[in-house]
Design a protein that fits this description.
elongated, five-stranded mixed beta barrel, 39% helix, 218 residues, 6 helices, alpha+beta, OB fold (Dihydrolipoamide Acetyltransferase, E2P), de novo design (two linked rop proteins)
């Protein structure tokens, strides 16, 4: 077993493993997607209980094995515990995590995607920004970061929707969620994002289907 490494990241997925362990998928700044085993994390009193939940963000001290990592300690700085009482927000957030897991690659820099996910989850907690706008901005910016997008909207739009598209494509990640739009513009912008997703992301996400069933969004 190699030396301990400390990585900054977020838990994208957690599943039982063995009798009392958990298998985690992390999006990390330094090494992209990694698999981590948390020994004894499902046992009562384990120090890993809180750190082994989706959305947990912080610094993870890990021992690197041949095919995966083993969790030594975790310093979680954000749990996004607000989602425990906000079912709709949790559904949107789960969708973001699933998309991030699809895009992120192993052993590649994950800084931008991690920042996008973190900022998008924070935006879901703001009442001033509609969740559906957060979703559309996240989807388009995820395509941009993956190199799969069109510089201009793929459908004919009015000026406001076209400007919204241009802003999301070019804005720095820390300025993505500083605006809102009318419901009409959001629908128009959303249709353009859907078209881009059909072209560049021909994949169905289970969490999105659940979200659509729950909220009735298109």
């Amino acid at each position: 077993m190699r030396d301990c490494v400390v990585l900054t990241g977020m838990v994208l997925r957690a599943a039982p493993s063995g009798e009392g362990d958990r298998r985690l998928v992390l999006l990390t700044r330094e090494r992209g997607r990694i698999t981590v085993f948390a020994r004894g994390a499902r046992r009562q009193g384990s120090p890993f209980l809180a750190a082994c939940r989706p959305f947990a963000f912080g610094r993870f001290s890990l021992y690197e094995g041949r095919d995966a990592y083993n969790l030594q300690t975790a310093e979680v700085t954000a749990y996004f515990e607000e989602f425990s009482s906000d079912m709709e927000g949790a559904c949107y957030g789960s969708y973001f995590l699933e998309v991030a897991e699809y895009f992120v690659r192993e052993n590649l820099d994950g800084t931008e995607l991690l920042t996008l996910v973190y900022q998008s989850l924070r935006a879901l907690l703001k009442d001033a920004i509609p969740n559906e706008l957060v979703r559309r901005v996240f989807e388009l910016k995820a395509l941009v970061l993956n190199g799969e997008y069109t510089e201009h909207p793929p459908l004919e739009t009015g000026d406001s929707a076209a400007y919204t598209w241009e802003y999301v494509v070019t804005a720095p990640l820390n300025r993505l969620y500083t605006f809102t739009v009318t419901e009409e513009v959001l629908k128009e912008f959303g249709r353009c994002v859907d078209e881009a997703l059909c072209r560049f992301l021909p994949r169905k996400f289970r969490s999105l289907e659940i979200l659509k069933t729950m909220t009735g969004i298109p």
